[in-house]
Structures are given as structure tokens and as C-alpha cells.
Amino acid sequence: MTISRRTILKSAAAGSAVLASPAFIRNAFAADPIKLGTVFDISGIFDAYGKPIDMAVKLAVKQINDGGGLLGRPVEHIGYDTQSNMALYTQYAQQLTRQDKVDVVHGGILSASREAIRQTLRRANTLYFYNIQYEGGVCDRNCFVTGVTPAQTTEVQIPYTMEKWGKKVYILAADYNYGQLMARWIQKYFKDGGGETVAVDFFPLDVSDFGSTITKIQTAAPDMVYSALVGGAHLSFYRQWAAAGMKSRIPLASTTLGVGSEHLVLTPEEGDGIVVCYNYSPELDTPANKAFTTAWGEMHGAETVPNIHELAVSNYQGILLWAEAVKAAGSVEQAKVIEALDGGLSLDGPAGKVTIDPKTHHATLDVHLMEMRGQKLNVLQSFGARPPIDTQLVCDLVANPDDNQQYEIKI
Amino acid sequence: MDLAAVFTLEILYSIAVLVLISAGLAVVFGMMRVINLAHGEFMMMGGYATIIAVQAGINVYIAMLIVAPLVVGVIGLVVERLVIRFLYGRLVDTMLATWGLSLAFTGAAVMIFGNTTTGVSTPISGFTLGAYQINGYNFFIIVVSILLLVAAYAILRGTRLGLVARGTMQSADMAAALGYSPDRVYMSTFFVGSALAGLAGGVLAPLVGLVPTWGSAYIAKAFITVISGGASIVLGLLSSATVFGLVSQTFTFLSGPVIGEVALLVAAIVLLRLLPQGITGRFFKGRL
Among B66, B72, B55, B198, which residue's Cα sits nearest to residue B121? Predict the structure, then answer.
């Protein structure tokens, strides 16, 4: 056997890496690491969502490893950046399951990206977590959803705004799946509370001129405007609304503003007073959130703390929840981890308590009513343990464990 | 009554925006026959120039009306020297080259500014008209557009500069024979066209959330307006912007923004079917 110079260099490098690495890795060196795969849009047009998510994933993995890993093994993070390109999702999902042979995948931001990889992961028997707020209805035993669904938030947001402002609402929504469904939910909850929808306007995603809409809203004279507008072009609405001097006349509520940290882009004059409802705000005054934001600041720099958004925290909670399940199951096997999660496993995360609902594999979460004030999401009121009632209406995995589809929710 | 006034104002505003976003293209495409698919990206860069200037502490009006056109004008100059000047008279080639440029500019903007939305707030506050609140900035945009059209008309019609520019575009050889350098005339005309795109981006920046892909939302509308306008630069721009502004706002108001956009496109198709040479190909023929 000949030993080449390269082999010697390689083993020398490996040896020094072992010596230099922290204690737990050396202990665990004999054991294989547990592999956690992620696929997110960290660059490209969705990077405002993806970048903080990536930071949250890294923080969660670091905390798990600092705490001794799982089952005495370290957690290895294998992450791919899909560059806001849907085609790359399928490719990377296959790479994660076939080549990297990961034990779990956390990933996807848009609903389209989730649907692109969900079936692949199901066929490969790889446990999948989608930790993002979305329109609801996914029913798949292999898939866990730890983000909020529309009913969890709007069901408390609308009674609050109705009591505060009145009964007539004007709805503006983005013209695609999410906006259409959200507009229906908003109408439903107003009707339930004895209110009335005066009009619903849908906007293509690239529309950035809202002048005539603002005039139309004034003609209709609603008590409030609900916005489910999405993305950069639609941010123009809030700016033009404030520029027209409408802020003091008709109040605004939104189901989307702030999820991508938009409140940091709007000036206080443009954003102040807008009411939103989410699972998380960096301003949450709880010990768990204090510890989380401190740890985040230490790892990524204190200046990035205001950028932490709900999607990042959901992913952080999703990973910790999976870690708890692995500990409870004593194994990383898909079937055993699912069983552990189905046993009503819960976690006290930065956004409050997260519990898995075994019927839907969605999470029961706390939600917080918030008001924008001085480029911050200030918490007005918190609501504990909100079940995913919209998905519960259509999905029962206990009765039909083989179910595999996204239901359209009838309202 | 109030509603009628507000509605009229919205239409005027809509026309003004179309004039503003198409003016640069009217010069570059209408006059020079260069299909500039990077027009939207020139506007986007004007927007970013404005925002950076404002963040650096420059007065917002100076940023919009001077900094943005100058910065984009200079970028346009560089583009003309490095790319466009080799492609005059080759329509398809300029189209491909500027399409590539538009991708490159968007990519560069993503690298420099990231994909996060930015913006400055509107410098003019809203005011009340009867029972309605109106965005005061709309007036500013209307005024800028009117001044722009008047200035363009005056320069092209009344000055030697305008005469030379028009003459060179019509017959470069003849202009060269008379002692004017077509190369320099083309260069400066492209500079003006780019600067106008920068101005549009700068003036619209306070109304929108700016992202690197912002320009692509305007490119189609700008081309439709310029092509439907026809051969005359100023009158063509004004007439087609008026038709489209009126149609899109009326339909937006009666129905919704989706229908408004559709109505604009349908109007353009009908118009070009009836008047293939554009509005000024039939009416106001030969006027400026």
C-alpha cells in the first residue's frame, strides 16, 4: 500500500479538527451525527423572508448541540439555498433524501414550494416540517405545520377591530391563492360578528398605484380597511394611504404587514396604528423571548434583532419541537418521531406554548394582537392556545392516516 | 360634485404618470429607434439614486429632480458608449443587448441593495377636497409632467439643439455633411433619454416601495404608450397617455384594478388595429 502525500495531509487535517472541536463532538465522534436538512430561499426575491429563517435555523442547531446534541449524537445541519427558484426545491429535496440521507427536512416558504417537495419527502419516508403561516388545509401524516393558519389569527383580530372601530369593512387583497382565501375568511368573521363587507378589491402583485382605490374607499366610507396585500409593490398602498392623509380618517388592519419586517421600511407616520395579529413579535415581553432575542443577538449581532419575524421564530420552534420529539422517541426513525409528536408534545418557545394537534399535524399556538408604533410591533393583547380550527374542519389524520392532500376550505 | 373633481384629478394624475414613465422611452425609442428594454431599470436606478441621496441628507426635491436624472443620465452615457453605439440601426440586436442590460442592472441592484423594499415618505401632505382626502403629491406629479412636455416641445421646436437632434435622427449623413457629428448627437440624445427615465424613477420613488425588480412593472406600459403615440414625440406622448389614462382610470374606478389594467391593454390593441401608425400617424401628422 502506498501512502500518498495527500492522504497524510488529509488525516493530519482530520486529526487536528478532532482536537480543536468542542468536547461533545469529540465524544460523539464515534456516533454518526443526526442530519437535519433545510431548504429555504435565502437569496433572490424572497430573501427578506428567508435570511432571518436561515439565521433562526443556525441558532436552533447551535443551541441543540451546545446542550449535548440529541441522543448523545451531534446534529449536523445540511442547508440548501433555493434562490427563490421553485425548480430548485424539487432538486434539493431529492438530494437531501437520496444523497445526504437526512433524518428530517425543515423547509419551504411559499405554499408552492411546500407542495413542490411535500410528496417527494412523503415517498422517501423522510419526516417533513413546514414552519410557515399559510392558508391552511394540508392533511398529510408525514408533514407537520407549526405556522399559524388564517382562522387562528383573524378569528381574534376581527372581533377586536370591530369593537374598536365599527362594523363596516373594505377589504383589499393580493390576487392569488392566499389573498382570495384570506378575503373570504375576513368576510366570514365580519358576518359572524354582525358586521358587513362593503367591498372586496383584488390587486395583481405588481400593481403599485392605489390612487383610485383610495378614492373608492372614501366613497364607500367603511369603518375600517382590512388589507391582505403582499409584497414590495403593495407596500405602496400604505405609503399612498398616509400621503393622502387617510390615516386619521379610516383605520387600517392587516393580515400580512410585518411578516417580512415591512414595519421597518414604513416610517412611523405611515405605519403607526395599523393593527395586526401574529404568533410572534420581537417586542413580546416574556422570559422565553428575552432569552431568545439575547441568544440571537449574541450569535448574529444585536442589530439584527428587529429583523426577527414570525416565520423565523416558527422555524426555530419547529426545529426545537422536532428535537423534543426525537428525545421523547429515543430514536430518529420517522415512525417513532411521528408517534412522539402525536402524543401531544409541546414546547415553550419564544412566541409562547406550541403543541402539536394529532388530528391535523398542525400546531396549537398563542397569538398576539399587535399595533404598529414607532416601527415596532407592540403587543396589545395575547390569546393562549389557539387550535388550527380551519384545518380541523377538513382534516382528521387519526381517522384517515393515509390522507394526503391540501383541502380547500369552504367558508 | 366633489367626487367628480376627485375623479378628474385621478385621471389627470394617471395621464401624468404615463407621460412621465414614457418620456425617456419616447426619446430613446421614438426618436432614436433604439428598443431599450432596460428602460424600467433606468427608472429603478433613478428611484434608488433618490433614496440614497435623501438618506445622505440631500433635500428630497433636489434628489428627485436633479440627482436622479444626472446619475441615470451618466449611467446611460456609459451604456451608450460601451454598448448601444455599435448597434444603431439594428433593432433586434439593441433589443437583445438592452434586455441583457436590464437583467444585469436588476442583478446588480439586488447585490447592492438586497431585495428588501425601501422608500422615502412623500414630501407633500394630503389635503381635503370636499368630503375627500387627496394625495397632495398627485399635483406635484401633474405639474412635473406638464413642465416636462412644455420643455420638450420648446427645446425640440425652438432651439438649434432640437433642430440638429431631429435632423440627425432623420438623416445622419446629411447632418454629417453639414458639419454635425452624428456620433455626438446620438450620444447626447441617449443621455437625455436616460436622464428622463431617471427623473421618472426619482419622482415616483416616494409613492412606492422600491425593489430591484420595480422597473419591470412599467416597461410594458411605457412601450404601449410610445408605440400608440406614433411618430410625433410630444403630441404622440400626450395623446396616447390621455387615452390610456382615461380608459384605465375609468375602468379601475367602475370595477377594479384588474379590470383597469385589462382595459388599458384592450384599448391599446384596438387603437393599434385602427391606427397602425399610432395616433399621430393619422392625426396631427407631421407635427412635433
Answer: B55
Alpha helices in A95-201 (DSSP H): 111-123, 150-165, 177-192
Q: Does A236 touch chain B (CB under 8 A)?
A: yes
Determine the pLDDT at residue A211: 87
How far, in Å, CA of B275 to CA of B281, rounded?
A: 7
A160 by DSSP, 3-state: which?
helix
Q: Which of B166, B142, B190 is nearest to B19 (CA)?
A: B142
Tell me the per-residue pLDDT of A61-112, one tens digit each, with 9 for 90 and over. Answer: 999 999 999 999 999 999 999 988 889 999 999 999 999 999 999 999 988 8
How high is the pLDDT of residue B79? 96
Best of B48, B125, B135, B254 to mutate (most A CBs within 10 Å, chain A): B135
What is the share, in percent, of chain B residues with pLDDT greater than 70?
100
Helix ranges (H only) for A284-309 are 287-300
Contact assignment for B257 to A213 by CB distance below 8 Å = yes
Between chains, do A48 and B115 touch, taking CB under 8 Å as contact?
A: yes
Within an 8 Å CB–CB cutoff, is residue A198 touching chain B? Answer: no
Contact at CB, B211 and A47, closer than 8 angstroms = no
Alpha helices for A259-333 (secondary structure H): 268-271, 287-300, 310-329
Dist CA A278 CA A154 (whole Å): 9
Handedness of CA A264, A267, A269, A271 (dihedral sign): negative
CA distance A235 to chain B (A): 5
Q: Chain B partners of A208 at a C-beta cutoff of 8 Å? A: 207-209, 214, 217
Report how far residue B126's alpha carbon sits from residue A242's, in angstroms, rounded to the nearest whole number.
Answer: 8
| Contact yes or no for B210 and A232 at CB 8 A | yes
Round to whole Å and give the CA distance between B26 and A128: 53
In the three-class reduction of DSSP (H, G, I as helix; E, B as strand; rest coil), residue A209 is classed as coil
Query: What is the SS3 assignment for A368?
Result: strand
Q: Torsion over CA of B203, B208, B213 and B216, rounded to 10 degrees?
A: -70
Q: pLDDT tens digit string along A26-54?
A: 444 457 899 999 999 998 777 888 999 99
pLDDT in tens, A122-158: 999 999 999 999 888 999 999 999 999 988 999 999 9
- A239 contacts B207? CB cut-off 8 A: yes
> What does the alpha-carbon distance between residue B117 and residue B207 come to, in Å, rounded to a whole number?
13
Beta strand pairing status for A362-373 and A352-357? Answer: antiparallel
Which pTM value belongs to this model?
Answer: 0.83
> What beta strand segments (E) does B7-140 contain?
127-129, 132-134
